[in-house]
Amino acid sequence: MVDLVNKENESNIRKMGGISQEEDVFAPVRKSVRNRWAWLAINLCTAFIASRVIGLFEGTISQIVALATLMPIIAGIGGNTGNQTITMIVRALALHQVEPGNFSFLFKREIGVALINGLFWGGIMGAITWLMYSNMALGGVMMLAMVLNLLLAAIMGVMVPLVMTKMKRDPAVGSSVLITAITDTGGFFIFLGLATLFLLPH
């Protein structure tokens, strides 16, 4: 039984990263390359979209250079939160713990967790940003952006595997790639949008 659970966990980890189940560390190079192409192509496309979102705010970044140093923090914590949520939901689906009757509970629970984490860690990073750049408004934008991106990550972390299941697709396949793309793009848009709205003169 333990071996079966370990095998299932290993399978889900591979799938979430977009790695074919039959691939191992000793697989031929050509086979490994072919197995990973599809999700690498998807990742490249989503990275391009994220870069275009950043491009929309070139004027803002040129006026507030500190934004460029803070953007990876917003994207990183959003991606981490999303992957934590997806891992939990995929495991719950595999164990048949998720039913239509508890969808609402799942959403409320994950939103609550994300809100608390966002306020706590966002508050810490907001204070650090304020001290680093002597700019209280920038610290406030940092905090708000982290809260909103963690909420986005939690919502999508629940939605992605549930929607994939509804579409008769394996929710473990490539879900990590998708959630990272969503939180990167969404995080950049939220952070730079808030900075444009609250930090630039109008």
Automatic annotation (TrEMBL):
Q: How does it sit in the membrane?
A: Multi-pass membrane protein
Name the SUPFAM superfamilies for this protein: MgtE membrane domain-like
Location in the cell reads: Membrane
For molecular function, the Gene Ontology terms on record are: monoatomic cation transmembrane transporter activity
Q: Which residues form the SLC41A/MgtE integral membrane domain?
A: 71-194
Keywords for the protein's UniProt record, in alphabetical order: Magnesium, Membrane, Transmembrane, Transmembrane helix, Transport
Taxonomy, superkingdom: Bacteria
Keyword Chloroplast assigned = no
Pfam families linked: MgtE (PF01769)
- The regions listed as transmembrane in this protein's record are 37-55, 61-79, 111-133, 139-164, 176-200
| Family membership noted in the UniProt record | Belongs to the SLC41A transporter family.
Specify the protein name. Magnesium transporter
Q: Which species expresses this protein natively?
A: Pantoea stewartii subsp. stewartii DC283
